[in-house]
Amino acid sequence: MAQEQCEQRESEENQGRSQAEGERKESRTTESSESYVTRLQKVILQNLRVVVNNVHVRFEDTGVSRREKSFNFGVLVDQVQYSSTNNRFERVFLNIDDKKRENRSFSMLEVKQAAMYWNTNVHENWTKNSEFVNLDCAKTIDFSKKYVENLKRKYHQFQQNYNQNQVYLIQPLDLTIKWRSNLNQKLQPNVPLSTDNIDIS
Asked: Residue 92 has what pLDDT?
């Protein structure tokens, strides 16, 4: 009788150990899976690149601020590109382990051919043009592209001294901003949290 009780107790202990070991294995598997997903997310975010092409933002005042005088202005950008970089500000595939070892992150914003135009005392704005108002989305974009192409053609003529009229309020320029951030959680007296460098051409 005592032997049967002992064997039963030993069997229950073995089952308990097996169950506990199974739970530990399942927990390790879950943690491993979560850490893999988290790492994958970090790799994707670290190497994410945002590119926006052909930006044209236009504002029109049809005699609201000044009666019987309309004006419009717009901002043009050929391309805007933002991404993280290596420590030489090169756009390459980034290893998150290198970033941790350096305790620094690097990123760069590039703006190509940004310009601004301003037209005063205009006789007609787009919002008053029935042809423009009735256009669908795709044709509206085409309308805007033709306007921008015409501005660029006039600007080219201005550069070649074929046209004496100024085309842009701010002439096309390229802008590059580089950021360097300190990822060290401990503040260091002689190390800034971030530095930046701006190049305009």
From this structure: 86
